[in-house]
Amino acid sequence: MKTTMDMESRLAPAVKAVPPSGIRKFFDIAAQMEDVISLGVGEPDFVTPWTIRESCVYGLEQGYTSYTANRGMPELREEIARLYREKYEVDYDAKTDILVTVGVSEALDLALRALLSPGDEVLIPEPCYVSYKACTTLAGGVAVPVPARAENEFRITPAELAAHLTEKTRVLLIGYPNNPTGAIMEREDLLAVAKFAEAHDLIVISDEIYGDLTYQGEHIAFSSLPGMQERTLLLNGFSKAYAMTGWRIGYAMGAPALIAAMTKIHQYAMLCAPITAQMAAIEALRRGEKYMKKMVAEYDRRRHLIYDGFTKLGLPCFEPKGAFYIFPDISGTGYTDEEFAEELLKTEHVALVPGSAFGECGRGHVRCSYATALDKIAEALARIENFLKNHRK
Ligand code: PLP
C-alpha cells in the first residue's frame, strides 16, 4: 500500500520499545538459500502422532466446529487435572484453576497482563525464551534480566536473584528445562528458589513447556514444591512434547482469582482456543503418551550425538539436560555470535541462532536445535568442522 500518513508516530510506545525477534531474521535469510540445514527452529521435526490427528478429523466429521467454554472444554481441563494429580501429585480443580489457551504464548501474555501494574518489575533469568522480556514490556512491566552463569550449568541461584530485587519486584518468571541452554533445575535448586519467592512474596510464573523433555532425572513441577502451589502460575502446552506447534494449544494453572482474571482477558481477546486443537489435546493426554515418549527417546539420541560432536570440535559446551537445544560457546573462534551465525549460514549453509538473541549473557554462544534428523545433525557438524578449519578468524 502507498501511504501518506506518518503511521510510525501513531504506534504505541510499548510496541516500539520491543525489538523484533532475533530468531526470525536468520530464518528469513535461510529461507532464500538452497541446501540449508537448519538447527535454528525450536520446532519438532515429527508430525503430530496419528491418533491425535485422527481424533481431530473424527471431531470435524462429527460436526464439532463451534466455540467452546471460554476456559476450554471441561473434558480437557479434567484430563489436565488428572495428569498433574497422577504425575506430579498436585491437585488442580478443573473448574476454577485451569485455563486452556492458544499455546503457552497466549498464557504467558495473559498472565503478565493480569498481574502487572505499570512499572512492576519481573525477574527473568537469562538466557531465556525471546517472548519473556517482550511480553513483560508489552504488559507495561519492566523486565529485569538476571544473568545465569555457564559455569553453574545455567541454573539460577537465590543470591543472583537477590542482587536484582527491588521494592517493585512482583513476579519471577522462570523456564526450565530451558530454551536456549537445555539447563534444568534439580530439586535443591528449585527449593532454594521457592524459599526466595516466599521470603519476598513473589508470584512465580513457571513455563514448563519442555517438562516432558527431561533426559536426566525427573521433571519437577514448581507448584508441587511445598507451599508453592498458590503462588505459582504453571504454564504448559502440547507444541513441543506432542509435536503440535501448529495446533496452537496450551494451558495455565494457578490460583482461582488469577485464572479468573486471565479468563476475563482471554474471553475478550480470544474467546476460546480452537475446538479442533482442544479435541486433539484430549486425545494426546488420553492416548498420546507412548508416542511422546518415543519422540523424547529420539531427541535423547540426537542430544548425545550433537553434544559429542561439539565437544570433539573443541567448542566448549554444557551437556543439555532437557528441551532440544544445545548452547556451545563459540567465543574462542574470534567471531561474535552474530558473525558466527551469519558466516556459517553464508559459507556452509547451516542455520543456527546467535546466543545474544536470548539476552546479553548469551553473547559468545549459539543456540542449535536438535529437533532435526540424526543424519542432518551429523552433516551439520561436518559442515561446522569445515567452517572452523577454513574460516577461523
Ligand atoms: N515457552 C518456551 C520456552 C518456548 O520455547 C516456546 C516456543 O518456542 C513457547 C513457550 C511457545 O509455545 P507455544 O507453541 O505453546 O505457544
**Number of domains as seen in the coordinates:** 2
Largest sheet, order of strands side by side?
2-8-7-6-5-3-4
Bound molecules: pyridoxal-5'-phosphate
| CATH architecture field of the largest domain | 3-Layer(aba) Sandwich
Work out the oligomeric state of the chains in this entry. single chain
Gross geometry: globular
How would you sum up the major sheet? 7 strands, mixed
Query: Helices and strands: which structural class?
Result: alpha/beta
CATH H-level homologous superfamily name of the largest domain: Type I PLP-dependent aspartate aminotransferase-like (Major domain)
State the share of residues found in helices, binned by percent: 40-55%
Q: Which stretches are low in confidence, meaning pLDDT under 50 for 5 or more residues running?
A: none
In total, the number of strands is 12
Number of helices: 13
State the distance separating the first and last CA atoms. 44 Å
Overview of the structural elements:
There is one protein chain. The protein contains 13 helices and twelve strands. The radius of gyration is 21 Å and the shape is globular. The chain has helices at residues 13-16, 24-31, 50-61, 74-88, 103-115, 131-138, 158-162, 187-199, 256-269, 275-287, 289-312, 337-348, 374-391, and strands at residues 37-38, 98-101, 121-126, 142-147, 169-174, 203-207, 232-237, 250-253, 325-326, 350-351, 353-354, 366-369. The chain is of the alpha/beta class and 393 residues long. Helix 3 crosses helix 10, helix 5 crosses helix 9 and helix 11 (289-312) runs parallel beside helix 13 (374-391). The strands form three sheets. The chain has a seven-stranded mixed beta sheet with strand order 2-8-7-6-5-3-4, with helices on both faces. It has two domains: 11-48 and 290-391, Alpha-Beta Complex (Aspartate Aminotransferase, domain 1), CATH 3.90.1150.10; 50-287, Type I PLP-dependent aspartate aminotransferase-like (Major domain) (Aspartate Aminotransferase, domain 2), CATH 3.40.640.10. Helices cover 40% and strands 12% of the residues.
